[in-house]
Amino acid sequence: MRILVIGSGGREHTLIWKLRQSPRVRALFCAPGNAGISRSARCAPIQPDDFAAMSDFVRKERIDLVIVGPEAPLAIGLADHLKGLGVSVLGPMRNAARLESSKVFAKDFMARHGIPTADYAVYQDSKKAFAFLDSSEARYPIVVKADGLAAGKGVVVARTAAEARTAVQRIMVDREFGSAGDRIVIEECLQGIEASYIVFTDGETILPAVAARDHKAVYDNDAGPNTGGMGAYSTDDILGPELEQGVVEKVIRPVIDGMREEGSPFQGILYAGLMLTSRGPLVLEFNVRMGDPECQVILPRLESDLSELCEALCQGRLKNHRAVWNRGAAVCVVLASGGYPGSYSGGKVISGLEMAEEDRGVAVFHAGTRQDGEKFVTDGGRVLGVTAVNQDLASAMMLAYEAVNKIHFEGMHYRRDIGAKGLKSPAHA
Ligand code: AMP
Ligand code: GLY
Questions:
Q1: From ligand 1's centre to the CA of 16, what distance in Å?
Q2: Ligand 1 within 6 A of 118 CB?
Q3: What class is the 125-182 domain?
């Protein structure tokens, strides 16, 4: 097979790393890729929204399968476009990608299909939103969400009416995220612990991946502002079998069936961001792709061939596919640039990469790196994802942090508690 992966982060490096292990994959490409990816795939400097250049490349390189990493190209119809050329694409069509690209669509869809989620209201008029926030009906904390894609920055958990008003002002009035702020969702703030539940689906069959947990806040113990994700871990008891069955029956199955019934069948990777509450698991959001950094802990636990899984998905025969997962644990610690998630500078030389990967079970996935002669230098906020797989969570954490200790660049910072939540108490206790 000849496969093209679209994207340039740690998630895409992990996809390439896993596909590289398959004897069935004859040629691997990535657009645009990054410095780490370029060691294992041919990188093409094509931006994901350049449909014309993408079509030319796919034809010229006789690509059999395109895997779309991030959400933005799916939201503007890249899968529709490439499928129109007769290429297999792992990723939903534009209409189905609305589950992520419009919070209003996702919430109304959940309401139509009885999928458990936070109570909410939609506003298109900022005056009405302000009036609601000042009324006695509003309960704080409360959550304000821009309708459209805002690179993960369009959700504000507001502790007070003043904070919520500021969020509405920035999203709807100042238009910080442009048309993503045409409408907003204001919803009930849920209490609990989060989990990422990700499945592969051909539109009929659901093939669950192992569950994972992201760590969004920049500092230990979930302190400080949110980031794109400072690390993740994956174990079998993030949900456990009973809770998992409930999520499949009450969330995933109704989404897949509901989207098909509404004329927007969903084919690809569906990610349910869940809050595990005393009322059971409730949906925080849907994503229409792998998580980042969840991908970095999920794929290393996949023992079977990813290209076979992708091919079966695209050909609508997931029903007959068996995926084999490692029953241990994986941990990914993100190493970030000094200052991230605020401003930071790039170009810092990274040392210790080869030594860090010497231990069995360790892989270092690149996100924001660039090659400078023989050296790798930093070129982004999240720089590397140091990942380890081992027989249990404690030993995977130890292995990951041993590898982290071998890597250095000026200003490097990371969380020291990735995985610690899983050691304390099972989430569903
Ligand atoms: P979303 O993009 O909708 O998942 O929101 C990003 C993050 O905001 C989530 O991962 C949660 O940490 C938080 N969040 C979103 N919605 C809620 C909610 N209803 N209650 C509490 N936290 C939330
Ligand atoms: N890790 C959260 C996301 O990928 O959206």
A1: 29
A2: yes
A3: alpha beta
Share of the chain above pLDDT 70, in %: 99
- Expressed in angstroms and rounded, the spacing between residue 69 Cα and the centre of ligand 2 is 11
CATH of domain 2-93: 3.40.50.20
**Which pairs from 149-157 meet CB under 8 Å and 24+ separation?**
149/71, 149/72, 149/75, 149/100, 149/101, 149/177, 149/180, 150/176, 150/177, 150/180, 152/226, 152/228, 153/177, 154/180, 154/181, 157/189
Residue 190 CA, ligand 1 centroid: distance in Å: 8
> Closest ligand 1 atom to the C-alpha of 154?
2
Q: Give the start-to-end residue ranges of the domains of the chain.
A: 2-93, 125-182
Q: What is the pLDDT of residue 250?
A: 98
Q: What is the pLDDT of residues 359-389, one digit of tens each?
A: 999 999 999 999 999 999 999 999 999 999 9
25-30's contacts with Cβ under 8 Å and 24+ in sequence apart are 25/1, 25/307, 26/1, 26/2, 27/1, 27/2, 27/3, 27/61, 28/3, 29/2, 29/3, 29/4, 29/5, 29/57, 29/61, 29/63, 30/4, 30/5, 30/6
Is the CB of residue 187 below 6 angstroms from any atom belonging to ligand 1?
yes
Pocket of ligand 2 (CB under 6 A): 214, 229, 287, 291-292, 294
Considering only CA atoms, which residue is closest to atom 2 of ligand 2?
A: 291
pLDDT at 428: 46
CATH topology of 2-93 equal to that of 125-182? Answer: no
Residue nearest to atom 5 of ligand 2 (CA): 291
Sign for the CA dihedral angle at 357, 292, 393, 244 comes to: negative
Atom of ligand 2 nearest to the CA of 229: 1
CB of residue 155 inside a 6 A radius of ligand 1: yes
Question: From CA 174, how far away is CA 59, in angstroms rounded?
Answer: 43
Q: Is 189 in the pocket of ligand 1 (CB under 6 A)?
A: yes
Measure the CA–CA gap between 127 and 168, rounded to whole angstroms.
10
